[in-house]
Amino acid sequence: MKRIATAIAALLAMAAPAMAGHTAAVGQGSCSYCHKTNLITQHGGFAATVCQTCHDSTASFAQAVFATISSGRAGLQYSCSNCHGSASHTEKHPGYIANWSTMNGVQPGAAASWTQPTTFTPVTPATLQSQLCLKCHSSNGFGAAAGGVSGIVGPTGKTLTDQALEFNPANRSAHPVIVSLNNQTGSLAPRALPASALKAPWSNVGNQVMSCSDCHDLTVSGTTGPQGATYTWSLKGANKAWPYTVAGVSSGTYQTTSNNSMSFCWNCHNFTAAGAPHTEGDHNGVACISCHIRVPHGGKVSRLIATATAGLPAYQKPDGKGAGPTNITAFKKASSPNNYSESNCSTNCGEHGAISGAETW
């Protein structure tokens, strides 16, 4: 085996000039947003052995490489479509999700609250579904992005955001996709919600980690969702509407504390145990999105709260474009969902006064 390995290394060394064509074979068109490096590097991160797709024959691997180089094919330019056809990642997501545990992933390194992680550790194979998704849906895929918003426009016409930033364990709040809530280091106590606030199977509060496919339907074909699902954001479950009262729309009537039976949130959360702010009479008819962020992956403020301050990203405002009513101006996390009072938040709607020592975006 050692002799064969030495022979292969020698052949590859001799072939370096001829294989230069591979170096130039980066992604073309929209592929180039993420696939910025050479063909060999791009394919080195997957569990499957892909070189043999082209460099193969009935002879030994070393002879196959030699034959390919001798015929001159190793120096040719190749585009993504030469091997992958016209199929996009949108169409391939069902296969990714069905086989995620057989593929390699990345684990984001530590970063300050609401900051892009810039280091990623390979995980071979992935042990969390998010490790596969974050290979592309983070700076690992599209590089540095101001505020975590990339320049890549997805199938829905929205720009892709850095989900390693959104689920960052250093954030004040986040759904438990990278770590459990008890390990969300940036979260203030109490980190987890009471068990009564959640539905099965989320009864082991604070200790469970979610998968991306718990909320997103990544296994169907269609035209609306980012992964090909038939609903906006590929939402799944009995309820698919957020933040509007109708599922799958990009504008309309916002859900409120008194009109939310269709809300996507109630697939996992119990509205009746959501706490005093949701049932307070003065809040009757207030839009959910006027207090909470639009993309509830995670946030800079506890309990996925939005504040009408300069740091709130445009995509986290009610309409996703920088407009809409954001009523809270500062927020303090209470010791339990039923211990909130006017001293826990200041607002711009005339109901609450100023507070000190609070969190803001």
Automatic annotation (TrEMBL):
Instruction: Kindly give the SUPFAM superfamilies that the UniProt entry links to this protein.
Output: Multiheme cytochromes
**What does UniProt give as the signal peptide span?**
1-20
Task: State the species of origin.
Answer: Geobacter pickeringii
| Protein name according to UniProt | Cytochrome C
**Do you know which PANTHER family this protein is assigned to?**
DISSIMILATORY SULFITE REDUCTASE SIRA, SURFACE LOCALIZED DECAHEME CYTOCHROME C LIPOPROTEIN
Give the matching InterPro entries: Multihaem_cyt_sf (IPR036280), Multiheme_Cytochr_ET (IPR051829), NapC/NirT_cytc_sf (IPR038266)
Sample GO molecular function, one term:
metal ion binding
Q: Tell me where on the tree of life, at the top rank, the source sits.
A: Bacteria
Q: What are the protein's UniProt keywords?
A: Electron transport, Heme, Iron, Metal-binding, Signal, Transport
Give the Gene3D superfamilies listed for this entry: Di-heme elbow motif domain, Flavocytochrome C3, Chain A
